[in-house]
Design a protein that fits this description.
This protein is an all-beta fold. The chain contains no helices and 5 strands. Strands 1, 2, 3, 4 and 5 form a 5-stranded mixed β-sheet that branches. It starts with a strand and ends with a strand.
């Protein structure tokens, strides 16, 4: 699953300014993230800030 956010705060406290796409596993664990450069299929736009717990 992929979701779009304006900003990401990693578990280590690093702030990544977006817009960006965060990819999750089926159980909701953070897999990866990258800057959004163009519209991506199968990406739900959430907006706001995603704060990673792990």
């Amino acid at each position: 699953m992929k979701r779009g956010y304006h900003r990401l705060i990693t578990a280590e406290g690093k702030v990544v300014e977006g817009p960006l796409v965060v990819e999750f596993s089926d159980d909701g664990a953070l897999l990866s993230y990258h800057l959004l450069k163009q519209e991506e299929p199968a990406t739900e736009w959430v907006g706001g800030v995603f704060k990673s717990e792990k």
